[in-house]
Amino acid sequence: MPKQTKKEQVRAKLDNEKLYTVDEALATLREHKAKFDETVEVAMNLGVDPRHADQQVRGMVSLPSGTGKDVKVAVFARGDNAEKATAAGADKVGAEDLMEDMQAGNLDYDRVIATPDMMGVVGRLGKVLGPKGLMPNPKLGTVTPNVEQAVKDAKGGQVEFRVEKQGIIHSGLGKLSFSDDALKQNFKALTDAVVKAKPTGAKGKYVRKVTLTSSMGPGLKMDLSEIEGA
């Protein structure tokens, strides 16, 4: 009989039917933590069919305690706006030169921001940025005249959430080294934002299942009473 991995041993000890509070889930993940600083992640199964336009769930939320991750930001801007974006901490700022760089395959960014006047240039990158979910979008605040604030938000813990084909939203909440309070604040901010983003076409129960996990940890089913509006 093959020897069980540590992950399998952990799962074998857990009650698969238990519904966890956030405090209980974090305590359990800490009990089984790995030797590196794992990312704490949440998965939300929603009662939507993303194939329909009126059942899309997408938005931005600022996590109060940050993400613990170094977010790489590229900005399409010229003149004063380019200088402001650089001063705010953008990793790459440019115009046609940045477009050509991206067309050549240099796409190692977590967020792409653009001023409205640059969308003529950015529009040519639809087939490059679109599949990666990086296309600037006014509804998400990534097409904005205020690039300085957009860069600060991106660097300071703002994350995008977007429902996948199976009706699931995945998002990181920070690192396991964060305090319980910090992770709980981030969990509440994200779940509140997803609940508020309920689309008009969603019928029946909206938030159907929520799972909290860490990079190497078990997936723990959450008690939905922990989530306001669910």
TrEMBL record:
Q: Which family does it belong to?
A: Belongs to the universal ribosomal protein uL1 family.
Origin, by domain of life?
Answer: Bacteria
User: PROSITE patterns annotated for this entry?
Assistant: RIBOSOMAL_L1
Q: What does this protein do?
A: Protein L1 is also a translational repressor protein, it controls the translation of the L11 operon by binding to its mRNA. Binds directly to 23S rRNA. The L1 stalk is quite mobile in the ribosome, and is involved in E site tRNA release.
PANTHER family listed in its UniProt record: 54S RIBOSOMAL PROTEIN L1, MITOCHONDRIAL, LARGE RIBOSOMAL SUBUNIT PROTEIN UL1M
By which gene is this protein encoded? rplA
Q: How does it assemble?
A: Part of the 50S ribosomal subunit.
In the record, what terms sit under GO molecular function? rRNA binding; structural constituent of ribosome; tRNA binding
Task: List the record's Gene Ontology CC terms alphabetically.
Answer: cytosolic large ribosomal subunit
* Protein's UniProt name: Large ribosomal subunit protein uL1
Q: Does the keyword Cell wall biogenesis/degradation apply?
A: no
Q: Which organism is it from?
A: Qipengyuania atrilutea
Supply the alphabetized keyword list.
Repressor, Ribonucleoprotein, Ribosomal protein, RNA-binding, rRNA-binding, Translation regulation, tRNA-binding
Instruction: Note whether Transmembrane occurs among the keywords.
Output: no
User: An example of a Gene Ontology BP annotation on this entry?
Assistant: translation
List, alphabetically, the CDD domains matched. Ribosomal_L1
